[in-house]
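User: For my dataset I need records formatted as: sequence, then structure tokens, nothing else. Please produce one.
Assistant:
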Amino acid sequence: YNLRSVDDMVKFSFKQKGDVREYIIHTEHTRFLTLFDFIFISFLFVFLVYQVYLSQFFLSFGLLLLAFTFRILLKMRDIKKESLLVIPDMGVQVTTVHFSGKRNDLFIDKTKIQSIIINEGIQCFRVIFYMAFIVKGHDKMIIAFENLCPRLDDLLKVYHGTRTVILQEEVDDNVDHS
């Protein structure tokens, strides 16, 4: 699974209208150019000036254009927002929005959801937590917030709220989940 833990850079929000709940994880860094991009552009500019000095302008300009295009394409693939829309008597919609505006939606029918779990995974040298749906007819779990990993306390709010709506389970708020 493609889990990237960026819990220092993500924000959690919750919306409710009647019984319909929407849990949203979005990145704080929504600017197109980050500090890394400025450093990258500065490095490319210095490289271009150096190549002009060596009289290899056209080769340098081509390499610069290729590197800049590659960086923009990578930036467009970044995830801006992920959400989980929980609709009683219907199911769950998992949505991913890319920086480019591209949107991926996946609907999971309530009748096909066997279980909703919180699991832990190891990423590099960290243990991360993620919420997943075990769905009839799928050989793999469907992960909510697959790219932007929320903190465990936020994930527990999503988990309990989703189980309450989809599986009609009552949550005891007095239980310490830490």
